[in-house]
Write a structure and sequence with these properties.
The protein is α/β, with parallel strands linked by helices. It is 45% helix and 12% strand.
Length: 240
């Protein structure tokens, strides 16, 4: 018995849990950095870009800014990062900036993700409860072959995790009470917020999301309903 037998929907964090954003962003950024002559390791650049992610959303959570979708925030953060590295405006064509900003829609799944999701889909409805916008999640799914049934999350709620409305409106959208939804994430703080909304919780270990020196989210910090080392292992635990 796993404790989530009556769950009808598995909602997934995506960036870091399902896809490997760090090496993918480094790959996508490397040609641009080389063209611009920016002397930075592409992995370090990916880390810097990601470091602007939460602060940009916090300005919206706090009410300082109206809701903007993640593609706009990612583009703004990229432009700020280029200024930080001395790249003058106009060095890249608008089409190049747009394509680079959309790199977050071209992220490789972790090796176990597609197989694990495909197995889980046999028994559960599945979909992202992500801070990504709906179009971005659609494009990312098509890029990586992610077999979602539906896309929920920030784009639906017009809010950003860990705000409760992201979880609650996602549950409402799939027609289930919170206790029949399980949040699947590699981040303890995501699960804390989901549990506070009445969700079941599944922790997936992703010990290299932030590279080999990662120090956060290496272990579960609470007694989550399930802890697994991969989505394939989760599928096996749930008899999928």
């Amino acid at each position: 018995m796993t404790g989530i037998e009556d769950v009808g929907f598995l909602g997934f964090d995506v960036f870091g849990t399902v896809v490997d954003w760090r090496t993918s962003i480094a790959r996508e950024s490397a040609p641009y950095l080389q063209r611009l002559g920016v002397q930075i390791d592409p992995l370090a650049f990916a880390d810097e870009w990601r470091s602007l992610y939460q602060p940009s959303m916090q300005r919206i959570r706090s009410g300082e800014r109206a809701f903007l979708t993640l593609d706009i925030l990612n583009r703004e953060n990229l432009e700020a990062l280029l200024i930080r590295h001395g790249v003058e405006a106009g060095r890249l064509e608008e089409s190049d900036i747009a394509a680079w900003g959309a790199a977050w829609e071209r992220l490789d799944p972790w090796p176990d993700s597609v197989e694990g999701l495909t197995r889980l889909k046999r028994r559960f409805a599945i979909g992202p409860i992500s801070n990504g916008h709906i179009a971005g999640m659609m494009n990312l799914a098509r890029f990586g072959g992610l077999p979602w049934d539906v896309i929920t999350g920030a784009g639906l709620a017009r809010a950003y995790k860990p705000q409760p409305e992201v979880y609650l409106r996602s549950a409402e959208a799939v027609g289930l009470p919170p206790h029949r939804v399980a949040m699947v994430a590699a981040h303890n703080d995501d699960l804390v917020a989901a549990r506070a909304c009445g969700f079941r919780t599944v922790f997936i270990r992703r010990p290299t999301e932030y590279g080999p020196q990662q120090t956060s989210d290496l272990h579960p910090t609470q007694d989550w309903d399930i802890v697994a080392d991969s989505l394939s292992e989760l599928a096996a635990m749930l008899n999928c």
